[in-house]
């Protein structure tokens, strides 16, 4: 009458995880599993640090690009205002 549907299909449940753990113990031995888990954790930490460094560099590059664009826009508007002022001054002199 009632059927049990997995909450997340395709993700191993309790019995499957126990079988995987048993296979790991048989392949690597009980002594090497903590070392294997530690090295895996260290590798994941290194990957995370590298990713964070790259993200920070990209943010800095975006900020410097935005600053350069703002500087260029300010310079262009200042030059345009200077040209307008000098043109109107030249016209007034005649």
TrEMBL record:
- Per the record, the domain of life is Archaea
| Subcellular location field | Cell membrane
In which residue ranges is the amino acid composition biased (Basic and acidic residues)?
48-62
- Segment Disordered: which positions? 39-94
Query: Carries keyword Methyltransferase?
Result: no
Task: Name the GO terms of the biological process aspect.
Answer: protein transport by the Tat complex
What are the TM regions of this chain, as residue ranges?
A: 12-30
Where is the sequence biased in composition, kind Acidic residues?
63-73
Where does this protein have compositionally biased stretches of type Low complexity? 74-94
The GO molecular function terms of this record are: protein transmembrane transporter activity
What does UniProt give as GO cellular component?
Answer: TAT protein transport complex
Which Pfam family is one of this chain's hits?
Answer: TatA_B_E
How does this protein sit in the membrane? Single-pass membrane protein
- What are the alphabetically sorted keywords of the record? Cell membrane, Membrane, Protein transport, Translocation, Transmembrane, Transmembrane helix, Transport
* Similarity field: Belongs to the TatA/E family.
- Oligomer and partners: Forms a complex with TatC.
Could you tell me what this protein does? Part of the twin-arginine translocation (Tat) system that transports large folded proteins containing a characteristic twin-arginine motif in their signal peptide across membranes. TatA could form the protein-conducting channel of the Tat system.
Protein name as annotated: Sec-independent protein translocase protein TatA
């Amino acid at each position: 009458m009632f059927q049990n549907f997995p909450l997340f299909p395709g993700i191993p449940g309790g019995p499957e995880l126990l079988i995987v753990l048993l296979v790991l113990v048989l392949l690597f031995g009980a002594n090497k599993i903590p070392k294997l888990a530690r090295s895996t954790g260290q590798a994941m930490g290194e990957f995370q640090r590298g990713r964070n460094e790259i993200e920070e560099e990209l943010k800095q590059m975006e900020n410097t690009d935005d600053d350069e664009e703002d500087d260029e826009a300010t310079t262009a508007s200042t030059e345009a205002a200077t040209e307008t002022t000098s043109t109107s001054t030249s016209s007034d002199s005649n």
